[in-house]
Amino acid sequence: MPLNQKSIAVSFAVASFFAVSIVAWLSGLTPFVCCKRAITAAIIAYLAAALAVKAANAIVISAMAQSQIRQHKERNSGTAN
Fold this sequence. Notes:
- The protein is an all-alpha fold.
- It has one domain.
- Helix content is 89%, strand content 0%.
- It has two helices and no strands.
- Helix 1 (5-26) packs antiparallel against helix 2 (31-80).
- The model has no long low-confidence stretch (mean pLDDT 91).
Protein backbone atom coordinates (compact mmCIF):
# COMPACT_ATOMS: atom_id res chain seq x y z
CA MET A 1 0.00 0.00 0.00
CA PRO A 2 1.60 3.30 -1.06
CA LEU A 3 2.10 5.99 1.54
CA ASN A 4 0.22 9.29 1.46
CA GLN A 5 2.89 11.71 0.26
CA LYS A 6 1.17 15.02 0.98
CA SER A 7 0.09 14.13 4.52
CA ILE A 8 3.53 12.94 5.59
CA ALA A 9 5.33 15.87 3.94
CA VAL A 10 3.02 18.42 5.58
CA SER A 11 3.52 16.78 8.98
CA PHE A 12 7.30 17.00 8.63
CA ALA A 13 7.07 20.60 7.44
CA VAL A 14 4.91 21.67 10.39
CA ALA A 15 7.14 19.88 12.90
CA SER A 16 10.29 21.43 11.45
CA PHE A 17 8.67 24.88 11.35
CA PHE A 18 7.94 24.80 15.07
CA ALA A 19 11.24 23.16 16.00
CA VAL A 20 13.30 25.75 14.12
CA SER A 21 11.19 28.66 15.36
CA ILE A 22 11.57 27.55 18.99
CA VAL A 23 15.32 27.06 18.63
CA ALA A 24 15.69 30.46 16.94
CA TRP A 25 13.53 32.13 19.60
CA LEU A 26 15.54 30.54 22.42
CA SER A 27 18.72 31.76 20.71
CA GLY A 28 17.51 35.32 21.14
CA LEU A 29 16.87 36.16 17.49
CA THR A 30 14.26 38.70 16.43
CA PRO A 31 10.79 37.40 15.53
CA PHE A 32 11.30 38.28 11.86
CA VAL A 33 14.50 36.23 11.66
CA CYS A 34 12.83 33.36 13.54
CA CYS A 35 9.96 33.40 11.06
CA LYS A 36 12.20 33.54 7.99
CA ARG A 37 14.33 30.64 9.18
CA ALA A 38 11.32 28.58 10.23
CA ILE A 39 9.57 29.05 6.88
CA THR A 40 12.75 28.18 5.01
CA ALA A 41 13.20 25.05 7.11
CA ALA A 42 9.57 24.06 6.59
CA ILE A 43 9.89 24.39 2.81
CA ILE A 44 13.07 22.34 2.75
CA ALA A 45 11.55 19.72 5.07
CA TYR A 46 8.43 19.49 2.90
CA LEU A 47 10.46 18.95 -0.26
CA ALA A 48 12.78 16.43 1.39
CA ALA A 49 9.90 14.46 2.91
CA ALA A 50 7.98 14.47 -0.36
CA LEU A 51 11.00 13.10 -2.21
CA ALA A 52 11.63 10.48 0.47
CA VAL A 53 8.01 9.31 0.42
CA LYS A 54 8.03 9.24 -3.38
CA ALA A 55 11.17 7.07 -3.32
CA ALA A 56 9.69 4.77 -0.66
CA ASN A 57 6.50 4.42 -2.69
CA ALA A 58 8.50 3.54 -5.79
CA ILE A 59 10.36 0.83 -3.87
CA VAL A 60 7.16 -0.58 -2.36
CA ILE A 61 5.28 -0.59 -5.66
CA SER A 62 8.23 -2.20 -7.43
CA ALA A 63 8.41 -4.92 -4.78
CA MET A 64 4.66 -5.50 -5.02
CA ALA A 65 4.86 -5.77 -8.81
CA GLN A 66 7.76 -8.21 -8.63
CA SER A 67 5.84 -10.31 -6.12
CA GLN A 68 2.77 -10.38 -8.36
CA ILE A 69 4.87 -11.32 -11.38
CA ARG A 70 6.57 -14.11 -9.41
CA GLN A 71 3.21 -15.46 -8.20
CA HIS A 72 1.79 -15.32 -11.71
CA LYS A 73 4.78 -17.25 -13.10
CA GLU A 74 4.51 -19.85 -10.34
CA ARG A 75 0.80 -20.38 -11.07
CA ASN A 76 1.42 -20.68 -14.80
CA SER A 77 4.33 -23.09 -14.37
CA GLY A 78 2.27 -25.18 -11.94
CA THR A 79 -0.65 -25.56 -14.33
CA ALA A 80 1.57 -26.36 -17.32
CA ASN A 81 3.02 -29.50 -15.69
